[in-house]
Amino acid sequence: MLPVQQAETLILNLVLPFNPHHDAEAVKLLDAVGRVLAEPVTGQLDFPHWDNSAMDGYAVRYEDVRSPSDGQPVTLDIVEEIPAGYQPQKSIQPGQAARIFTGAVMPAGADTVVIQEDTERQGDRVTILSTPNPQAFVRHQGAFYKAGTPLLQPGIKLQAAEIAVLAAAQCAQVRVFRRPRVAILSTGDELVGIDQPLQPGQIVDSNRYALAALVAEAGCEPVLMDVVPDQLEALRTAISQAIAAADMVLSSGGVSVGDYDYVDEILADLGATIHIRSVAVKPGKPLTVATIRRQEAGDEGVGEWMSGRVREIPSTPSPLYPSTSVSSPLPLSPISLYFGLPGNPVSAMVTFWRFVLPAIRKLSGVREPWHPAFVSAIARQELRSDGKRESYLWGRLELVNGQYEFELAGGSHSSGNLINLAGTNGLAVVPLGETAIARGELVQVMFTLI
Ligand code: AMP
Ligand code: MG
């Protein structure tokens, strides 16, 4: 059993990040939301584009208003009105001002804006009631960004702020990394789909949905395979197909030491290198991590995959669930990373958050850090473990007066109980060798919201 930290490091070392030349594509700006930037962006425009006013008021010469010799407020002639979007026509001379609005271009000659609240207007004259600071409320051209200098670096996830920056720089298209394709495979004779009647002894295959949702939230394209029975040949075919169809494969079930747990055997048969078989983590001890060169998996899978062995998640227009039919035409990574996750529903999700997600981040071209985010929180209940494995207990992180608190989910913390996982947002960690964290003590909690 490998300690968690060592397993994480080993997994990250197996991942080859996407290559900006082979694994990137140009997309329209709004199609880039949630994608990872693949190349540096340099803007051609200064930001702000021109000296402009930050407020509604009057553009003046600071010289004119700074210290009235007679102590009386200064009154200036208004020579022009400059709304946003117009080029000023006049240059401000001594004793003059221009009416100006937020975002409007500063007229030549003026260097300071007096906000309208500090003025009194009489016809085409304005009296300055309070002395402004020099250059007050002027946003200078290039003060925020100078054209030709680096604007955005590759490896950042494009969210609203980055999309806004790219829009301001008039980047209608951006080069982003393709979405990693992740095949999801459930194994087990007992599994039925969500639309099939349940017979005695059967259970519903929830892992496929859990993993598809996690993979989509992580910005990948889920490739859903049919449920595979616990039969060596069927599983072997399905695993080959999955490897042929995706950059990464997540199977769940069949990796423990039961008589029907064939995954490791098949991977070895297919020429994969198995790097990890079990990790000292609870839930999630049986965890297989392997790499396989795609060609060695054989071509047998691809044809069948194309002919409908792979089922898509019901198609919705949401970018969270990109349909496999809109797959990027770019070739897959030469080495496929295989995660054989445990079958228990909570174990499958915990091992995804702890081990698969950092690997996805690195593969996607996201720059470091790839590891999960942990925060210190006060445990509201005692947190127990058997001390033999690093234990993850699910619950809710809440911020109370600037301090995180951790509320343990009520009910059973069995790895088969996925019901009380709903509504949680964190996993509290009881380290290896420790049997309890007392109520009121600090505990490290891993965020599970992606
Ligand atoms: P296994 O790792 O195959 O021994 O499975 C461990 C437990 O997880 C068993 O109780 C399985 O029935 C359950 N399980 C396996 N696969 C799934 C799945 N896809 N969805 C829900 N539960 C599963
Ligand atoms: Mg099984």
Sequence-ordered SSE layout with sheet pairings:
Elements: H1 4-14, E1 24-28, E2 41-42, E3 52-53, E4 57-60, H2 62-65, E5 74-82, E6 96-100, E7 112-115, E8 119-122, E9 125-128, E10 138-139, E11 150-152, H3 160-168, E12 173-177, E13 181-186, E14 191-192, E15 203-204, H4 207-217, E16 221-225, H5 232-245, E17 248-252, H6 263-269, E18 273-278, E19 281-282, E20 286-293, H7 300-309, E21 310-311, E22 335-341, H8 345-363, E23 374-379, E24 383-384, E25 390-400, E26 403-408, E27 426-430, E28 436-437, E29 442-447
Parallel strand pairs: 5-6, 13-16, 13-17, 14-15, 17-22, 19-25, 23-26
Antiparallel strand pairs: 1-12, 2-11, 3-10, 4-6, 4-7, 5-9, 8-9, 16-21, 18-20, 20-22, 23-29, 24-28, 25-26, 25-27, 27-29
Helix pairs in contact: 1-8, 4-8, 5-7
The structure holds adenosine monophosphate (AMP) and magnesium ion.
Magnesium ion (MG) is lined by residues 187-188, 253-254, 260, 343.
Kindly describe this structure.
The protein has about 450 residues and is α+β, with helices and mostly antiparallel strands. It contains eight helices and 29 strands. It has helices at about 5-15, 60-65, 160-170, 205-215, 230-245, 265-270, 300-310, 345-365, and strands at about 25-30, 40, 50-55, 55-60, 75-80, 95-100, 110-115, 120, 125-130, 140, 150, 175, 180-185, 190, 205, 220-225, 250, 275-280, 280, 285-295, 310, 335-340, 375-380, 385, 390-400, 405-410, 425-430, 435, 440-445. The protein has a seven-stranded mixed beta sheet, with helices on both faces. The protein has a six-stranded mixed beta sheet with strand order 7-4-6-5-9-8. The two termini are about 25 Å apart. Adenosine monophosphate binds next to α4.
